[in-house]
Amino acid sequence: MIKRLIVVLCFLSLILQIFFRYKLTLTRYFDVDEYAHLHWGYNILTGSIPYRDFFYIFPPYFLFPVAAIIAAFGRKAQTLIAVRGFIFLIQLAAYIALFLWARKLRGMLVALMALVIFIFLPLPSDKLLEIRPDLLATVLSIAGLLLFVKAYENKKAIIYFISGFLFSISLAIVPKTVFFLVPVTMVMFFRLNKSYLFFVLGVLLNFILVAFFFAASGKFLLALYLTTKLASDVTKVLASKFYMRPDIFFYPNDTFYGTPGISQTLIVNLIIYFVGIVWGIKNFVSSLSYTDDKKCVREFVFSATLMINLYAFVKIFPLKHLQYLIPVSPFVAFYFADLIVVIASIAKQSRPRLPRPLRGLAMTLIGLSSEIILVLIIGYLTYLSFIMFRYKSPWTNSAMIGKLNKLLTAIPQGEPVFDLTGETIFYPDGYYFCCLPYGQYQEALNFKFPDFKEDIERRGTKYVHIGRTDRLEVLPAVHARYIRENFKESEIAGILVKSEKKQ
């Protein structure tokens, strides 16, 4: 009876929490990175080619669905909400992927508990609702992991191929997901099988497609350089200037935790991460000792993925952006859920040393208490989710939507805009670089890019968007000086217009 109640409460909690996520996804303010991805997607739609026509240091795949949504909904501010809707669907896919993995490893109860915990987790929940490629790439990698294990257990070549294909799409969205491949590669190395060739073929297929896209841009070597060496150099330069500790997000911050100061959500988040990681390490060590080969592989692959992605976040990634915790958080949620269910199960099976007439009563009470604790955990996490939702709900995107509507009215369609934030979105680029503070890492830009003055004049750029604050300081000094000398403030907030030349 209590177990059924726990399952019902899990479903109720999931319905409420997913509703909270849905509302926040559609109404939350836009991060500056989101504008960049939206604008680059619009560039793709209008025929501009990454690497050749505009600066871009990622593989191109994420831009295609963004461009498709813009094409479907049109050049209007509400299209941004439609793209956020697409991101919400990716969140749902993440929940499904975690549920399937958890159910395979531990069964229905742990799977539901893992979802309740994952959706609650304050870190990195804000990044899950933003228009950025990290979540989609992570979901594809988690799905690829699951299919690899299924292929290993069932010896199905086609499933190996699909698994490899999903991994390669993930890499073609965010190359940082390469760490998901490490446990898979280790299994293939120590468990040799000819069927792995189908996995390799699946991986190679998208590599070939990306290489074809690079070649079609007419700048194959430049595209390869921008997405590999330069992308690495840029993060290293920024990390040297803006050092970020790995624990930077685990301190009081109302933006993340929904309440200021040392809050309940902060403390619970810390407990879940610490306990989940420790229990994950324990399971990683245990996975090496299983005699059942199939169980050994699935436990190893899942736990090793947590260890490797955690190590990458702490030691390998120069910058510790919050979105880099996305590949870690589902695994942390699973192992925390696993541990509390294990503790409840052990408590339920305990046999206290009491006189026989009292032993049965004591066992019943202990069993009920352990299950009631699970009920309380579900209720408490749902309550904390509501607290965060209520606190964050006023932080809406209505002002940003209103601003974009004004910009679309004030600036003629088709006019090139040199945009330092990407907020104008639906305009051609006024310069090769857009939406990025490229002056902060100009020493890493070791390739020949267009001369600023010549490119601005060639494109006929009459507008510069600097945003709510003057971002000219994030440009190279020469570029900033040219803008100050040749552009002036306009009646449109945040927009500079080209000055008329003196006769």
Q: How would you characterize this protein structure?
A:
66% of the residues lie in helices and 3% in strands. By secondary structure, it is mostly helical. It has two domains: 2-392, no CATH class; 412-498, no CATH class. The chain has a four-stranded mixed β-sheet with strand order 1-2-4-3. Helix 7 runs antiparallel to helix 14. The longest helix has 37 residues, at 356-392. 42% of the residues are buried.
Keywords:
4-stranded mixed sheet; 2 domains; mainly alpha; 66% helix; 503 residues
Could you give a short description of this structure?
It is a multi-pass membrane protein. This protein is mainly α and about 500 residues long.
List the helices and strands and how they pair.
Blueprint: H1 2-27, H2 32-45, H3 63-73, H4 78-106, H5 108-120, H6 122-128, H7 134-154, H8 157-171, H9 181-190, H10 196-216, H11 220-241, H12 254-257, H13 264-287, H14 293-316, H15 329-349, H16 356-392, H17 398-410, E1 417-419, H18 452-459, E2 463-465, H19 477-486, E3 487-489, E4 495-498
Parallel strand pairs: 1-2
Antiparallel strand pairs: 2-4, 3-4
Question: Reading side by side through the largest sheet, how are the strands ordered?
Answer: 1-2-4-3
What shape does the CA trace take?
A: globular
Helical coverage, percent range: 55-70%
Rg from alpha-carbon coordinates: 25 Å
Structural category is mainly alpha
**What string gives the helices and strands in order?**
HHHHHHHHHHHHHHHHHEHEHEE
Number of H- or I-type helical stretches: 19
